[in-house]
Amino acid sequence: MVWRGINTLFMYLTVPFLLNYLGNQYYGVWVTIYGLLITAYFMDIGITLGLKNKLAVALSNKNYILAKTLISTAYISISIISLFLIIVGFLFVYSFKMNQIFNINIAEHSMKLIVLVNIVLVVFSVTLNIYKSIYLAFQKASKIEFAMATYQGFVFLQIVLLPLFIENSLLMVSLIYGITNLLIGFVFTVIFFNSNKSIRPSFNSFKINQVKELMGLSLNFFVIQLSLIVILTTDNLIITNLINPESTTVYSIVYKVFQPFLIASTLIFTPLWTLFTDAYNNKDFEWIKKTLRRLNLLFMALILGVILVSFNFNRIINFWIHKELNYSNSLILFMAIFVLIRIYGDIYMTFLNGISQIKLQMWLYVFGAIINIPLSIIFIKYYHLGSSGVILATCISLFGLAIAMPIQSLKILKSTDVFKKSNVVT
Fold this sequence. Notes:
It contains 16 helices and no strands. By secondary structure, the chain is an all-alpha fold.
């Protein structure tokens, strides 16, 4: 919690400096580019998520040979995928006009260079960031938070100093974020494997059959990730393209005001994923039920917090940004609803992901992805809701998950009660 707090503090301190440095238009383009390219982390065919689950089970069973094989297979497989992504990225950039896609009047060759630099740096970091899944499998989520706090701290320092050397440069901002991410990933990977040499990845431990084993469950995760890309990361591009980059800036700032609730939920849910895996593997169903009850109580407190933020939104913006922003009340309302829908669904999805029961949520995510972009366009073009229509479409796309996931979890836990009773009778 301490490291996540420091991480979040640096992130929010960076925003006004970055906004003043780039201006509303360039900032809107930046958050659009960065938001799109971090989807590269979801393009690993779900291997990192599969690694987190299977490595947690291997460690629970003290099978360190299997753990080394899983880690080695994940690193080599994702390295190959990363190379493929870079090739695809270059083909994409040279096949389309970037200044038209991002709706900005910048020389085309400069825009292509900015996008290419981001592609290379982000994709390379996909492999280096495997250390996060490994730390989670070891139930050491605090190490990841420390790494991210270090990353945000260095980024903040560089953004503050950047105006002293060069003005209004999207390229320099891209280099700062990308290179710092690579360095942090490299350092923490080296630190981990220096302390855990027995499971250090090697070419000899790579097993082609383990790729299929990781992907067996991970393909479903991959479909979920692709759907999330459509639902969550296309918002900025839609707003930039159909309205303007300045509206993307406003949308991003409003989102960031509510983001601490999502950050706090991630802080809680991330270590619980592998703990649910371990508890279910050891048939500790009472602990699972107790934990879900406590999470529901926390959610009640969250509702109150979201309401308080919504009613004090203007004061928060004035204190934080010190700048006038043209936002609507409907944007605030729909953003608050989005936060509540997403977090409530995530309570139960964390449990279901931990026990690898993901088929239902996969289909619900696919349905949400199918309707998300058309709904966003309809709400903007025909109902004139502007950026509010985009987040409303996202709420509708995720609503089914908030209803279905608690029901599925309840059915699974009820079946464990029947199983225990039958054992007692026997």
